[in-house]
């Protein structure tokens, strides 16, 4: 009988890694049936898409509270759909607010649970690890320090798969997709490019993009290019970008943009790691609603907000948070990335060490798929 897998990812980065995981599962278990919550990449890889992540993405404490009714309806529907599908293995990809509730419930239904890309309990809500250990059959982690953390802190043997971004970005680097920007006067851009990655959700873009755009006026010899999130319309971005002559927008071509960029201003999150793996010098930016920020400041227990700095355990890239994320600071840091040779060399060396660390687990998607298929057969 063909095996059945049910995968839940709740945002764009989860869809990317989920898509590679679905492809690996299809290679290793060709007759399998895969149902998912995710996005276009998971669907294109061969999974049946139940709900798109654009219906699930809520950012910050306040936003979650305001959308609690929708979240509870999604949880109820998800449980019903899992029960009707009755998978051999339930695979949860990151997205802890939702997925940990599903994991706890699934254990009571005697459904095997694999968690791929661990919730960041080392940063906040550390006590969730107790519940996780009880209801998750296999925990697969993608950050090198997490294996040691779970063993020493919780006596839990988890599996380090390596980071799935390594395989994805290596694959994209080999492609011959050169980014060509056509300007408003019909000519093709010849200026060096600065990438702006303001995030994927409306709330965070509205906070960060206006500040990023003002920086462009101090660098007239550069073309600033905004990475449009796949789930949002270009018209939403144009309400911010139209007053700025040396700013363009590209849709669904973030990796091509990074391949072509001299530097980048990047929102905190997975994008900081993607930028580093493309060897692009970056400034990491965070600006949220004041209420969400004040709550986060009190409950999050980490030295850095960017994955690059967390993994390397030192400041490789500059982080500008909340009030510090202003035009003056961004201009100063960007100028250094573009023109300070010593700074460029330091970042290049640190990025090489970062990639080496993240590659040590092997091919993450194939390794994760092997574990999932094996568990389904037990």
Describe what you observe in this structure:
There is one protein chain. α12 (270-277) links the parallel β11 and β12. The chain has helices at 12-28, 40-44, 60-66, 68-85, 96-108, 128-135, 144-154, 164-174, 202-215, 234-241, 254-259, 270-277, 290-299, 307-312, 327-339, 341-359, 364-377, and strands at residues 4-9, 33-38, 48-52, 89-93, 112-116, 138-141, 159-160, 193-197, 223-228, 247-251, 261-267, 282-286, 318-321. The chain starts with a strand and ends with a helix. The chain is α/β, with parallel strands linked by helices. Strands 3-2-1-4-5-6-7 form a 7-stranded parallel beta sheet, with helices on both faces.
| Order of H and E elements | EHEHEHHEHEHEHEHEHEHEHEHEHHEHHH
Shape: globular
The count of DSSP E runs of length 2 or more, i.e. the number of strands, is: 13
Q: Provide the gyration radius in Å.
A: 21 Å
What's the main sheet like?
7 strands, parallel
Distance between the termini: 14 Å
Strand content: 15-25%
Report low-confidence residues grouped into runs of 5 or more: none
Assign a percent range to the helix content.
40-55%
Mean pLDDT level = 90
Structural class: alpha/beta
The number of helical segments is: 17
Q: What would you say about this model in short?
A:
The chain is of the alpha/beta class. Helices cover 50% and strands 17% of the residues.
């Amino acid at each position: 009988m063909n095996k059945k897998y049910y995968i839940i990812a709740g945002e764009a980065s989860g869809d990317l890694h989920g898509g590679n995981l679905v492809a690996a599962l299809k290679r290793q278990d060709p007759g399998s049936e895969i149902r998912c919550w995710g996005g276009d990449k998971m669907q294109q890889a061969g999974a049946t898409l139940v709900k798109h992540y654009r219906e699930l993405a809520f950012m910050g404490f306040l936003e979650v509270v305001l959308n609690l009714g929708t979240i509870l309806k999604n949880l109820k529907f998800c449980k019903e759909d899992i029960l009707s599908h009755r998978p051999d293995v339930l695979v949860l990809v990151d997205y802890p607010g939702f997925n940990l509730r599903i994991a706890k419930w699934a254990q009571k239904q005697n459904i095997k649970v694999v968690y791929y890309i661990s919730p960041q309990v080392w940063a906040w809500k550390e006590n969730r690890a107790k519940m996780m250990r009880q209801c998750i059959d296999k925990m697969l982690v993608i950050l090198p320090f997490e294996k040691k953390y779970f063993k020493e802190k919780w006596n839990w043997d988890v599996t380090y798969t390596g980071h799935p971004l390594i395989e994805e970005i290596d694959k994209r680097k080999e492609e011959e997709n050169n980014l060509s920007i056509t300007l408003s006067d019909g000519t093709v851009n010849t200026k060096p490019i600065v990438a702006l990655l303001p995030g994927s959700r409306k709330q965070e873009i509205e906070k960060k993009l206006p500040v990023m755009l003002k920086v462009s006026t101090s660098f007239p010899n550069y073309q600033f290019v905004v990475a449009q999130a796949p789930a949002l319309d270009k018209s939403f971005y144009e309400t911010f970008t139209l007053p700025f002559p040396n700013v363009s927008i590209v849709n669904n071509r973030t990796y091509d943009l990074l391949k072509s960029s001299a530097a980048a201003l990047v929102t905190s999150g997975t994008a900081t790691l993607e930028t580093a793996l493309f060897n692009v010098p970056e400034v990491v930016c965070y600006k949220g609603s004041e209420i969400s920020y004040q709550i986060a400041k009190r409950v999050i227990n980490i030295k850095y907000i960017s994955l690059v700095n967390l993994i390397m355990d030192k400041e490789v890239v500059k982080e500008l948070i909340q009030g510090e994320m202003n035009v003056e600071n961004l201009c100063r840091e960007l100028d250094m990335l573009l023109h300070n040779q010593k700074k460029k060399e330091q970042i290049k060396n640190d990025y090489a060490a970062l990639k080496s660390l993240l590659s040590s687990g092997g091919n993450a998607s194939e390794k994760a798929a092997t574990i999932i298929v094996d568990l389904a057969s037990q």
